[in-house]
Design brief:
9-stranded mixed β-sheet; 521 residues; 18 strands; Rossmann fold; binds xanthosine-5'-monophosphate; 5-stranded parallel β-sheet; alpha/beta; GMP Synthetase, Chain A, domain 3; NAD/GMP_synthase
Length: 521
């Protein structure tokens, strides 16, 4: 394996992820980790990440000179590169020109690190210090217009320093460079796969949990489902999953979750389904204000989970499906700085009697979680589920929520998703297996609180209007309406009007985010 030493940069998990993409296993450790421990792990290579400090200042994150004398190849990235040079006798100082963004770099591709990389290549720079003099025995192997040392090597000792960020996708040939390091220089064979993650994590859970009891709140979303799958494979019935069906799930979703994790499902665990729809509807009766609705739904979940936890009694571990982006957003990501707090992390339920928290997916990105899910035998439609908010249909029904409205929006939404999926599949089949550009990243029906007049047969109707939402987005922070083909929308409209009682009008929501949000409330 390769180990990544974390000096607090924002892209550190990305480094690990790119290494895993080369099918080489890798783990991240803080720069404070003892050298003895690193030696004991006997890694095939070491990568030093970026970080916010200036290595020539006192109290900056540092490493010992011995790290470079173990005979293990070391690659320093950005701060890691500067630190390597600083520790080995080079000079690092404030750069006259701060480089930030896509930058043209000239590389010496006779170096093993840059084998098969173009001589002129675009790389992602982000630094205010620079290496003004390389350490003895180092040779410069890349430069930019403003940065004399964009990369340096001591090939005899397998020490490499890169000022830019190969882990960021804007560095066009970055993955190749990392692959050259882990395979060409460290000699890793690249046979690691996601199933190794699954197997290793199962072993780790077994060891950690022993004969203890674990409690998990299962939402039916991708993350908690994959966490449940892993834990179940590791400890079977020592795991109890509580699934609260708040009556605000999509059509049939509660039953789908039960069919995977329940008694007749694919996993060995204790599955508790709480059918709490009536409780929620009672609490939500007459409530129209969006924030109030969200609050009621959240609080009711805590109350129900607490009741179930009390029935179970003390447990040793509370499991959570926290994934890496949740950790970074909460500012708990290793050494990196706080960005924003996140609802999944930090706010631990203090009402459950447990000793320790267990988060088996903490190092993974979403697409890696999905791969692990498939590996565990979780059905594809669950693994590729689109995001669904915690408050569920409660925030897709504008105004008061009740059982009838829930059913209306569930039925309309099911038709909409079915037709969009069908059209996307057909398009794909006709276009070399490529996804259509209009395929939305999130799409759903929402029930407006508006009623209008229509005519059905010879009868006057006075029914609700449904709004179809479909957005293209990368990070869910900004979004644009997806251009679903008009014929598809027409089919959806006519099916909804004909099949869903209570709806006589269909709108398509064109609003971008900002100013709109993706959800309506
Ligand atoms: P908005 O509506 O804020 O949605 O543009 C952005 C993304 O977040 C999801 N979302 C939520 N997810 N709990 C969640 O777990 C929530 O309360 C919540 N509100 C919005 C939304 O579905 C979209 O993907």
């Amino acid at each position: 394996k390769v180990i990544v030493i974390d000096f607090g940069g924002q892209y550190n998990q990305l480094v690990a992820r790119r290494v895993r993409e080369c099918n080489v296993y890798c783990e991240i450790y803080s720069y404070k980790t003892d050298l003895a421990k690193i030696k004991e792990m006997n890694p095939k290579g070491i990568i030093l990440t970026g970080g916010p400090d200036s290595c020539y200042l006192e109290n900056s994150a540092t490493c010992s000179k011995e790290l470079f004398e173990l005979g293990i190849p070391v690659l320093g990235l950005c701060y890691g590169a500067q630190l390597m040079q600083h520790v080995l006798g080079g000079k690092v100082e404030k750069a006259p020109v701060r480089e930030y963004g896509k930058t043209e770099v000239f590389v010496d591709n006779t170096s093993k690190l840059f084998a098969n990389v173009s001589e002129k290549t675009i790389c992602w720079m982000s630094h205010f210090d620079y290496i003004s003099n390389v350490a003895p025995e180092f040779k410069i192997i890349a430069h930019t217009a403003d940065c004399p040392v964009a990369a340096a090597e001591n090939a005899d000792k397998n020490l490499y320093a890169i000022q830019f960020h190969p882990e960021v996708l804007h560095t066009v040939e970055g993955t190749k460079m990392l692959e050259n390091f882990v395979k060409g220089i460290c000699g890793c064979n690249g046979t690691w796969k996601m199933d190794s993650f699954v197997e290793r994590t199962i072993e780790e859970i077994k060891e950690k949990v022993g004969d203890g009891k674990v409690l998990l709140a299962l939402s039916g979303g991708v993350d908690s489902s994959v966490a449940a799958g892993l834990l179940s494979r590791a400890i079977g019935k020592q795991l109890t999953c509580v699934f609260v069906d708040h009556g605000l799930l999509r059509k049939d979703e509660g039953n789908q979750v039960e069919s995977v994790f329940g008694e007749n499902g694919n996993f060995d665990l204790n599955f508790i389904r709480v059918n709490a729809a009536d409780r929620y509807y009672a609490k939500l009766k007459g409530v129209e204000e969006p924030e109030k609705k969200r609050k009621i739904i959240g609080e009711e979940f805590i109350r129900i989970f607490e009741e179930e936890a009390k029935k179970i009694g003390a447990v040793d571990f509370l499991a959570q499906g926290t994934i890496y982006p949740d950790v970074v957003e909460s500012g708990l990501g290793g050494e990196s700085a706080v960005i924003k707090s996140h609802h999944n992390v930090g706010g631990l339920p203090d009402f459950v009697d447990f000793k320790e928290i267990i988060e088996p997916l903490r190092d993974l990105f979403k697409d890696e979680v999905r791969k692990a899910g498939l590996e565990l035998g979780i059905p594809e439609d669950l693994v590729y589920r689109q995001p669904f908010p915690g408050p569920g249909l409660g925030i897709r029904i504008i105004g008061e929520v009740n059982a009838k409205k829930v059913q209306i929006v569930q039925d309309a939404d099911a038709i909409y998703r079915e037709e969009v999926d069908k059209a996307a599949k057909e398009w794909k089949a006709q276009h070399n297996n490529e996804n259509p550009s209009w395929k939305p990243d999130q799409y759903f029906a929402a029930l407006t609180n508006m009623r209008s007049v229509g005519v059905m047969g010879d009868e006057r109707t006075y029914d609700y209007a449904v709004a179809l939402r479909a957005v293209k987005t990368i990070d869910f922070m900004t979004a644009e309406a997806a251009e679903i083909p008009f014929e598809v929308l027409q089919t959806v409209m006519s099916r909804i009007i004909n099949e869903v009682k209570g709806i006589n009008r269909v709108f398509y929501d064109l609003t971008s985010k900002p100013p709109g949000t993706i959800e309506m409330e």
